[in-house]
Structures are given as structure tokens and as C-alpha cells.
UniProtKB/TrEMBL annotation:
Quaternary structure and partners: Homodimer.
PROSITE patterns in the record: AA_TRANSFER_CLASS_2
UniProtKB keywords: Amino-acid biosynthesis, Aminotransferase, Histidine biosynthesis, Pyridoxal phosphate, Transferase
Cofactors (names): pyridoxal 5'-phosphate
One Gene Ontology term of the molecular function aspect: pyridoxal phosphate binding
Name of protein: Histidinol-phosphate aminotransferase
Residue span, Aminotransferase class I/classII large domain: 28-348
Pathway: Amino-acid biosynthesis; L-histidine biosynthesis; L-histidine from 5-phospho-alpha-D-ribose 1-diphosphate: step 7/9
Organism: Gordonibacter urolithinfaciens
UniProt modified residues of type N6-(pyridoxal phosphate)lysine: 214
Reaction(s) this enzyme catalyzes, per UniProt: L-histidinol phosphate + 2-oxoglutarate = 3-(imidazol-4-yl)-2-oxopropyl phosphate + L-glutamate
SUPFAM superfamilies per UniProt: PLP-dependent transferases (SSF53383)
Gene Ontology biological-process entries: L-histidine biosynthetic process
Length: 363
């Protein structure tokens, strides 16, 4: 079928990304940090932003920020690249490694942006689905890359929305087994404390994605970065929009990165709350939470779509995956403040216990 207005044919089956934001008292749907940047750091941000020359183009590659990230990771500037959110870097990967006649290996269920970018760039998508418990089917992935023809893949660790880490041994075997570019998406690395960074020196085909959106409370600013081999980074630089990361965002990110130790107590609190939320979920009959190393928990229950509505009616917004392939009857809750988590658990318990009411047809 021809698409409207004669836009490119690969757009025909695509639906625009929809984060499904709705106003709510407890917004626990987008894995954001429940705490905004603290006042002291905000003041420093204001001072830095005041000094930005707004009439001048920004440094295209944000070299000051790049140097800070490189130094913290024991790397050189040319092994780091920043982007307008991690999302831009994911799109750039599809531009640089995908395209007609090329193949992306996807491990669903996972972050839907990868597949959307592949389709947008006319890249073939090969799937190796996860097992029933959402762990990666490691032997099947290794067998598929051994067949050849894969140009790039993403291993999300921890995986979004399911929460579990990828095995370090598996990722190393994968890196040895293929010349394809292997991105390890570590968007939630600050909550899992696990990283493949020590392996960068040994594997040219490894690239790591990180973001300021989750642990560093900057989802509103749009800042992500890559760590990788200088030659790989060079290919990413070729396809990127020169000024995608604006001067104000660069200034804000520099201050936040320099103050990143101040985010540690908040990260620790989220990790502690995560255990409490999982425990609370386990105590509700018929609710099965999956283990998580990130700042969210996926859980399965009957009538998930209806329960989602009941939670929303109580002012609690979670993410509904109940109609997503492989995630039937699943909802994902982001870890919020202690009060928000309590409100969520209370509302869910009431919704599950009062389930019989739903049988009564509404007028
Ligand atoms: C949030 C997220 C990102 C990046 O998000 P940005 O806000 O664009 O930096 C990347 N990958 C996964 C799996 C995520 O959940």
C-alpha cells in the first residue's frame, strides 16, 4: 500500500512513538528520577547557563563534556560521543550500521525504539525472542550471529521493560563470535552497578550507551553518551546532526556530571525502594513481579489493562504493556518516592481485591 502524501514506503506501518503521558498524582510510567536536581546544583546550573553565548553555535561535539566523561571512564576524548538523549545515538546507530540490505538483530521484548529505527532506515530486523522468564536465549543468539549477515545488535542491560541484566560471560562470547557492532545499552547502569566498560579495550565492536535521563534526573534536558572504540565513534560522528546538542544542555550536563556524587544517596534510596516495591508486589495475590536491576519493576497479573485503568483512577500512572507482544498482562511501575510507591501499592492491592466489581457492566 502506498503511504499518504507519497512519504517513504517504510513509514506506512509505523506509528509515532507515544510515551502515553497523562497527568497524575504519582507519575510512575517513564522511569524518570522522582527527585529533581537539588537546589544547590540548580544554582550552579543557573550561573553556568548565564554565561552561555546564545548568539553563537555550540561546540558541535561538546568537547568539554566529552573530556569529563572520558576522564571519569579512563578513556580518551575520541572514545566518547554525546547525543541529544540516548535516543539520538540509537537513531544514529541505525543510520550508520543499518540501511537497505543490512540486518539488525533484536532480542524482544525490549526497548521498542531499536526496532522502529531499523524499520525507518529500511534495515531488516531479525528476532531472537527472549525466554518465558525474559532471560536472553544465549545459545540461540550465538547461533544466529554464527550464521552471519548481522550488522548490529543491542543488548539492553538491564533490559527495559523487563529489568534483568545480561550475563557478562555471554556478552564476551558474543563479542568474540561476531564482527557486528554490539551495543550494550546501559541506560540504567547506575541502578545495576554493572558495566561492560572494562572490556572496551579488548573489543573494537563493543559500544556502550548511557544517559543523563534516569539516575541524573535530566530527562527534560536530553543528554546521552556513547563509550566505544575511536574508529566506531568516528562512524557515528559522520551521521550525526552537527549541532544536535545545544549549548544550554551542554552547560547543564557539565554541572550535573561534575556533581554526580551528589546523586548517589538518591540512587541508593531508589535501589532500596525497589526491594520494598518488589516485596509489596509479591504480597498481593495473583501478582507476579519480575526481578529488576533497574529503577522499575515489571509485573504480571490478570486483567492488567483494567487494573491499569483502576490505578489511573486512583492517581497512579504506570506503563501498560498488556497489549505488547510477549508482555501480555504486564504492567511496569517506575520506582518513585516512598510516598508514591506506597500510594501505588495501596491502589494496586485495592484494585486486585475489588476486582469483582469489574464484572458489573458499566452503564
Ligand atoms: C531511557 C532509555 C534510553 C535513553 O533515553 P534518553 O532519554 O533518550 O537518553 C535508552 N535506552 C533505554 C533502554 C532506555 O530505557
Amino acid at each position: 500500500m502506498r503511504s499518504v502524501c507519497c512519504s517513504a514506503p517504510q513509514l506506512a506501518g509505523l506509528t509515532p512513538y507515544d510515551p502515553k503521558y497523562l497527568p497524575a498524582e504519582a507519575v510512575l510510567s517513564a522511569n524518570e528520577n522522582p527527585h529533581d536536581v537539588e537546589q544547590e546544583v540548580r544554582h550552579e546550573i543557573m550561573r553556568e547557563v548565564k554565561r552561555v553565548a546564545l548568539n553563537r553555535y555550540p561546540d558541535p561535539l561538546a568537547n568539554d563534556l566529552r573530556d569529563m566523561i572520558a576522564e571519569a571512564n579512563g578513556l580518551d576524548r575520541d572514545q566518547v560521543l554525546v547525543g541529544n538523549g540516548g535516543d539520538e545515538l540509537l537513531f544514529n546507530m541505525a543510520l550508520a550500521w543499518g540501511g537497505p540490505g543490512r540486518t539488525f538483530l533484536n532480542l524482544p521484548p525490549t526497548f521498542s525504539v531499536y526496532e522502529a529505527n531499523a524499520r525507518l532506515t529500511n534495515t531488516t530486523v531479525a528476532n531472537v525472542p527472549r525466554r518465558a522468564d525474559f532471560s536472553i536465549d544465549e545459545e540461540a543468539v550465538l547461533a544466529r550471529v554464527a550464521e552471519g549477515g548481522i550488522d548490529y545488535l543491542v543488548v539492553t542491560s538491564p533490559n527495559n521493560p523487563t529489568g534483568e541484566l545480561a550475563g557478562e560471560t555471554f556478552v564476551c562470547r558474543l563479542l568474540d563470535a561476531t564482527d557486528a557492532l554490539v551495543m550494550v545499552d546501559e541506560a540504567y547502569f547506575e541502578f545495576s552497578r554493572q558495566t561492560m566498560r572494562p572490556y572496551l579495550g579488548q573489543h573494537k565492536n563493543l559500544v556502550i550507551l548511557r544517559t543523563f535521563s534516569k539516575a541524573f534526573s535530566l530527562a527534560g534536558v536530553r543528554m546521552g553518551y556513547l563509550l566505544g572504540d575511536a574508529e566506531v565513534i568516528r562512524e557515528f560522528v559522520k551521521v550525526r546532526q552537527p549541532y544536535s546538542v545545544d549549548a544550554v544542555s551542554q552547560a547543564i550536563a557539565r554541572v550535573v556530571y561534575a556533581n554526580r556524587a551528589k546523586f548517589e544517596p538518591g540512587i541508593r534510596a531508589i535501589i532500596e525502594e525497589r526491594a520494598r516495591v518488589v516485596d509489596g508486589l509479591k504480597r498481593i495475590p495473583g501478582v507476579k513481579p519480575y526481578p529488576s536491576d533497574a529503577n522499575y519493576v515489571l509485573f504480571r497479573l490478570e486483567n492488567a489493562g483494567i487494573i491499569w485503568e483502576m490505578l489511573y483512577g486512583r492517581g497512579v500512572l504506570v506503563r501498560d504493556f498488556s497489549r505488547a507482544p510477549g508482555l501480555e498482562d504486564c504492567l511496569r511501575v517506575s520506582i518513585g518516592s516512598r510516598e508514591e510507591n506506597d500510594a501505588f501499592l495501596r491502589a494496586l492491592r485495592d484494585a486486585v481485591m475489588g476486582k469483582c466489581d469489574l464484572e458489573v457492566p458499566s452503564a
